[in-house]
């Protein structure tokens, strides 16, 4: 994992988050608790399901999943990079809206707040679920997580305070950042860079930086890039 810079809430003309997600969501919450809708819309009233917003269950909120309207805008805002796996998610292959503060534990209004959204591939979202032991990509610092380029397992950096190291380990375990699937993914990118099928057309490092930025950063940090990709200075490289 690496730090993800929080992007501003999208506004028109690109995407009207407030009008398309927040306000419909808040209106649905009002009706679900027996209050008048705050937006005019066609169709029948939404049936009352609880006395208080705080008592609404996640299953009820998922019936009014207006956050899915923001998926394209979320994908564009974060360059298509999964906040947890740090790889590009093809739109065809399951980008999802992760509610960082999960709906089972958060105030229901957060279901319709941009600041609570993290772009996640479907596997990472399924693994994170409502568990509270995953560090927030918006809050972590670069360098807390490192990649072992021999095993392609994500590991805690050396020298972290014991409590922080434990949090990093819990995040790695929960998300499966040391799993076979993740190791194979990183390994394939790494091998494509170092052992291209056509040596006359090697994979450029910028491709890794756009599609697997955590791997590319670790390759640069550890000097495991081709000489032409090294910054000026006394560096060495090799596989």
Automatic annotation (TrEMBL):
<protein>
    <submittedName>
        <fullName>Uncharacterized protein</fullName>
    </submittedName>
</protein>
């Amino acid at each position: 994992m690496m730090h993800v810079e929080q992007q501003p809430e999208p506004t028109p003309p690109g995407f009207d988050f407030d009008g398309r997600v927040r306000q419909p969501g808040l209106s649905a919450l009002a009706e679900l608790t027996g209050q008048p809708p705050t937006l005019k819309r066609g169709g029948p009233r939404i049936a009352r399901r609880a006395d208080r917003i705080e008592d609404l269950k996640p299953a009820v909120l998922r019936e009014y999943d207006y956050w899915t309207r923001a998926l394209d805008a979320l994908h564009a805002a974060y360059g298509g990079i999964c906040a947890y796996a740090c790889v590009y998610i093809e739109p065809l292959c399951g980008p999802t809206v992760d509610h960082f503060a999960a709906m089972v534990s958060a105030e229901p209004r957060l279901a319709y707040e941009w600041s609570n959204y993290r772009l996640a591939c479907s596997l990472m979202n399924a693994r994170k679920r409502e568990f509270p032991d995953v560090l927030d990509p918006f809050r972590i610092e670069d360098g807390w997580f490192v990649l072992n380029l021999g095993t392609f397992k994500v590991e805690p950096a050396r020298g972290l305070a014991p409590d922080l190291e434990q949090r990093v380990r819990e995040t790695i375990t929960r998300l499966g950042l040391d799993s076979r699937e993740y190791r194979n993914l990183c390994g394939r990118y790494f091998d494509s860079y170092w052992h291209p099928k056509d040596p006359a057309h090697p994979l450029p490092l910028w491709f890794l930086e756009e599609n697997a930025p955590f791997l590319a950063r670790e390759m640069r940090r550890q000097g495991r890039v081709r000489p032409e990709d090294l910054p000026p200075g006394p560096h060495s490289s090799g596989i």
